[in-house]
Please model this.
Amino acid sequence: MVLKVSDLAVSRGGVLVLEGLNFTLKRGNALILRGPNGSGKTTLLRTLAGLQPAVAGRIEAEQDDIAFATHSDGLKPTLTVRENLTFWAHIFGSNHIDEAVDVFALQSLLNRSAGALSAGQKRRLGLARLMISGRPLWILDEPTVSLDKESVARFAETVKLHLSKGGAALLATHIDLGFEADVFDVSPFKAKPTDLPFLDEVML
Amino acid sequence: MIALLDRDIKLAIRAGGGFGLGLAFFLIVVVLVPFSVGPKSDLLAIIAPGILWLGALLACLLSLDRIFALDYEDGSLDLLATSPLPMEAIVSIKALAHFLTTAVPLVLATPLFGVMLNLQAEGFVWVMISLAVGTPALSVIGTFGAALTVGLKRGGLLLSILVLPLYVPTLIFGAEVARRGTLGMDIQTPLLMLAGITFATIALLPFASAAVIRINLR
Amino acid sequence: MSEKRSLWEYANPRKFMGLSGTLLPWVAISGGALLLIGLIWGFFFTPDDYRQGSTVKIIYLHVPSALMAINAWFMMLVASLIWLIRRHHVSALAARAAAPVGVAMTVIALVTGAIWGQPMWGTWWVWDPRLTSFLILFLFYLGYIALWSAIENDDTAADLTSVLAIVGSVFAVLSRYAVNFWNQGLHQGASLSMDKEENVADIFYYPLLVAIAAFILIFVALVLLRTRTEIRARQLRAYMARERMQ
Model:
């Protein structure tokens, strides 16, 4: 088990967004979060990644096990692909980027500025960063935004590869990625306003 | 950690006018002062140490909002926050990068600007020493201010309002070292105070800055 | 089983509104009355100082306002710490409420200080340590208020301004020493000395105490009033957020 969530409540900007969440994610599996826009998927992912404190409930996971990625991947356009990747490699304590470069077919792009890449190539670079982190649980927020079908398919292949190597993935996405994964709909967990004996005590 | 320092320096240099901007602003201040107060050399010689400090301080102020803004906007700050690096280290490295790319060029340029302001011969050493000791504090304090305003559109003006009162002690002691050193007076007290402020801010303020960044990322 | 009553009860907004609503008229009226008494006594019923003439009577405004300018900041600091440690919203809002009152006190202190000193200095401003320190305090207040206004999210604003208050307090104290050092060369006569250092006759002293008490009460009244407003505004935003959640 790499992630277990019990009775979790999360908030954004002081407002309770989701509550009563329960799910478990084991290695080798993927879990897809579904729900309409604004339903709190991003808030949930950010809370699990450690960027926001949970309001209630428990998250059982090792902070060190988690690698977080959004569609803005923190790639610096003025640095080359190689410079971007080696930077993250050093941050995560490893030295080699070769395996990730191979898997994502980035050899020809190594010396190109990251700003000059296409959307699909940038996405590959972002995923390469995840692989370099060496962390088993990938938390991905809308990873396939602005990708064409071919790139989406390649993305799905990558995630499958990661899962087969014992990793896990938690993704929020609207798109059918074409691989097997449990689906978790967050809509039923929308938070309701707390009951207050005196409305005068609300502060939020 | 070195990787972050390395990256930030590279980004600053490649950003086009990164550290040249600070130097250019310093030059502008130095050029405008004689136009404001008149060209008499003896007057300029008296105010030169202070003007050099003021120019360096304002030039540092200019580049503060870039410390976190770019990383905040493209999501890098989120990723750094979830990486193995502790936030205190991240903010300290960013302050160091600011110091190296903005303050150090200014300090090295002071002899040239000192000449333009008729700085007395004894003053050159003391202006440079005081700036070298004091500007790290400006970077660390500025990083705190940048952390407070990181999410805000057009936070630059607010950043200046927040940071300037915090700069006053460093400015007072630094300019006093420069002024008294030029006149051949004893500089021990202000220099010790200046160094004390610098070391204390380097040691303590990153904790506040880190807390502020975490709050702003929530 | 007796309930332990503690001051922390008033962290509850409803209880705070109740207590402050009851207290406010009394505090305001007594503050106003004491101010009238103190000023009339001080201005009209004390003799002129043989050295400084009648303008010295401005101290009945200057000293209390200067004291309150510093106390207001101190109150803001304590309220900020309470927010950071115990997360009581009323405390955070009280800090926010106190700041403009503190600014007003600082401005009064600066203006009355200048008026006091003008006959002695011959100009309307000198950079003496005390006035300069108050000017720097004024800038700290401005930054604090500006930060509150700039941030949309209430809790984030409370957190950030609290950290700023703490860091700012350290630097404010540091500035005081720096300014004293910076001002060493100036002619002694240019500084405004605090009354306890001089031999102030009782006849000056008692009206001053009344004026100080008046300013304290007026400060409390204003902060209570403004905190009530802040609480209501905050509750309005909370109601609207709850509506959106339905």
The radius of gyration of chain B is 18 Å. Residues 87-116 of chain B form the longest helix (30 residues). Chain B has one domain: 2-217.
